[in-house]
Design a protein that fits this description.
- By secondary structure, the chain is α/β, with parallel strands linked by helices.
- It is built from 11 helices and 7 strands.
- The chain folds into 2 domains: 94 residues, Arc Repressor Mutant, subunit A (Orthogonal Bundle), CATH 1.10.10.10; 140 residues, Rossmann fold (3-Layer(aba) Sandwich), CATH 3.40.50.2300.
- 43% of the residues lie in helices and 12% in strands.
- The strands form 2 sheets. Strands 5-4-6-7 form a 4-stranded parallel β-sheet. The chain has a 3-stranded antiparallel β-sheet with strand order 1-3-2.
Length: 272
């Protein structure tokens, strides 16, 4: 199967790059992008964190959405709520286009990526990440498997649910189809991990975000508002949504692993 390159998946033009530069010249929009790089958020949360009135937040969100930098999705917990999330691939493509708009060819990599990664400091301890959703049946299980595959022995990935049931067969089938190991994926209660040392807690379900308990050690927390494929009734559409969820998780986790280890500041040698 042909895997789309960044340029193919997110085509841009020189005018897109120039518009992106103008858009990010505004400090409020920069602040919004930085917030959404950490976690999906509602408009009210964004306004409270950067101290802007609702009408100003709406204006800036519209500017970012019109260029495709972010998307919005109605919460599965309360349809009156809307979560905003970065389109990381589009952001990356626009950043490259902006560089080319200033100096053609600037987005081309310098040197070999693998050689650059090998110069990074090794992790003094693995990155420990817990993914949470309500039933721990699909999204969190898939996230656990994807992180384990990408990070190898540099990560310890876990998942759990507030009301755990069992790993959904279509989630497992989607992972296997993509060549991702599903061994050991079982549903677990989130209470099992309270007291465990963790670096990140990432909620991938709107409902569990509202009931997520406090964890000792103050691990970094993020919310990824991801659609639940299990609730889709039409079999063909459900299969498509499962693949879309997997694709979104792969992008988000790849970019998560580009960040310094929150506990040590070290970076990963390489990603699989």
């Amino acid at each position: 199967m042909h895997t789309l390159s960044l340029a193919e998946a997110h085509p841009t033009t020189p005018s897109d790059g120039r518009r992106f530069l103008r858009l990010l010249a505004d400090e409020s929009r920069q602040a919004i992008v930085r917030l959404l790089a950490q976690s999906d958020r509602r408009a009210g949360e964004i306004g409270a964190l950067i101290r802007l009135p609702p009408n100003a937040v709406s204006y800036h969100l519209k500017q970012l959405r019109d260029l495709g930098v972010l998307h919005d999705r109605r919460s599965s917990a309360d349809a009156r709520d809307v979560y905003y999330q970065l389109d990381i691939g589009r952001l990356h493509a626009l950043y490259a286009a902006a560089g080319d708009a200033l100096y053609p060819g600037m987005s081309a990599p310098l040197g070999q990526p693998d050689e650059q990664r090998d110069t990074l400091h090794s992790l003094s301890r693995p990155l420990r990440v817990l993914f949470l959703c309500t039933h721990n049946s699909a999204r969190s299980q898939m996230a656990e498997a994807v992180l384990r595959q990408m990070g190898g022995d540099q990560v310890q990935a876990f998942s759990a649910g507030s009301l755990p049931t069992e790993a959904h067969p279509e989630a497992l089938a989607t992972l296997r189809e993509a060549g991702i190991d599903t061994a050991g994926l079982t549903a677990k209660p989130l209470e099992q991990f309270i007291g465990e040392p963790l670096d990140y807690i990432i909620t991938v379900c709107d409902r569990v975000r509202d009931v997520c308990p406090s964890f000792p050690g103050d691990p970094a927390q993020a919310h990824w508002s991801i659609a639940d494929p299990v609730v889709v009734e039409d079999p063909e559409q459900r299969a498509r949504v499962f693949h879309e969820v997997l694709s979104e998780l792969q992008v988000r986790i790849r970019y998560l692993l580009l960040l310094p280890h929150p506990g040590t500041g070290a970076r990963f040698h390489s990603l699989r």
